[in-house]
């Protein structure tokens, strides 16, 4: 079950650089795209996502300026890759991939029930969209499914292979300058 | 040994979102910073890196517009975290952390011999530096140490813990739309 998650800690879902799902919606038609070109920009969180003009979500995101960034775990890994290999122009992705939309609180696009975490976002800057497809968005509400047993996320290698989270190493004792984040 | 790597494939080092090292140089003084806020912007590769005005490298990178992005593996993981917890203003990082600078071919900052890969970069756009600390850079030469046995990279969780690459999953058969990258 998705429960509210402290917004100021939501950057931790993005910082490791996992494959993410980006949910948009227009005229009551939600769509999902798979994306691995993203970065944190600030801790609020502010997030940068790079889309291509060829992506069905590109113009919708520019027009609506709202999205949900969902963090998938490996239990839906194959679906995530399949979502990235078809287009919302002719595919109802929630239906086709048997994913459950949940009404978001502050934006029109829905959360994805099966994701580990969801961040409701508003696009705050489109000045770099024409040049680089780079959308700057701010997370305004975050959700996390603490009951989900599968917590492993995964990263794209860019060649159809994906690397799954392995061991976590605790190096907090070396973070002498950044104690504030520990 | 670092050997030349095809530039058009170098995006694969950045796409998984690993912790990276950013090497700058001014007045023959090379410096290294640790960074985990980065993303691919294009395949050339064009890479976006977010620095803070408080980072010693920030003004140097803006002035010199050159850097090397080095991809560390877990054999130097502790050094990478330590590099991110001190400042080039009072620390010679190559010397302090016993890393070996190698002369780059197209930029002033050196490669790091102990890294798995190095990408020589030119900053091509600073229009978003004031607003977000976001430097847009283009890779112009790439190097890879194929003889290095340790190839595992790692990702920052943002709290002093780091997740190490685990199993690689091959889902190339699902990449029906993106065969060109396989």
Structure description:
The structure is a homodimer of 182-residue chains. The first copy, chain A, is of the alpha+beta class. Chain A has a single domain (2-181), classed as Electron Transport, Fmn-binding Protein, Chain A (Pnp Oxidase, Chain A, Roll). The first copy, chain A, is built from 5 helices and 12 strands. Chain A has helices spanning 11-14, 56-64, 77-83, 93-96, 129-132; strands spanning 2-5, 20-26, 29-35, 38-42, 46-50, 66-71, 101-102, 111-112, 117-125, 134-145, 154-156, 161-170. In chain A, the strands form 3 sheets. In chain A, strands 1, 2, 3, 4, 5, 6, 9 and 10 form an 8-stranded antiparallel sheet that branches. In chain A, a hairpin with a 3-residue loop joins strand 4 (38-42) and strand 5 (46-50). The longest helix of chain A has 9 residues, at 56-64. Chain A is globular and about 50 Å long. The mean pLDDT of chain A is 96. At the A-B interface, strand 4, strand 5, helix 3, strand 11 and strand 12 of A face strand 4, strand 5, helix 3, strand 11 and strand 12 of B.
* Mean pLDDT across residues of chain A: 96
Taken as a percent bin, the fraction of beta residues of chain A is 35-45%
Largest sheet of chain A: 8 strands, antiparallel
* N- and C-termini, Cα separation of chain A: 26 Å
**Helix-strand string of chain A:** EHEEEEHEHHEEEHEEE
Largest interface by residue count?
A: A-B, 59 and 59 residues
Helix percentage of chain A? 10-25%
- The poorly predicted ranges of chain A are none
Domain module count of chain A: 1
How many distinct beta strands of chain A? 12
> Quaternary status of these chains?
homodimer
Tell the overall outline of chain A. globular
CATH architecture term of chain A:
Roll
| CATH homologous superfamily annotation of chain A | Electron Transport, Fmn-binding Protein, Chain A
The CATH class label of chain A is: Mainly Beta
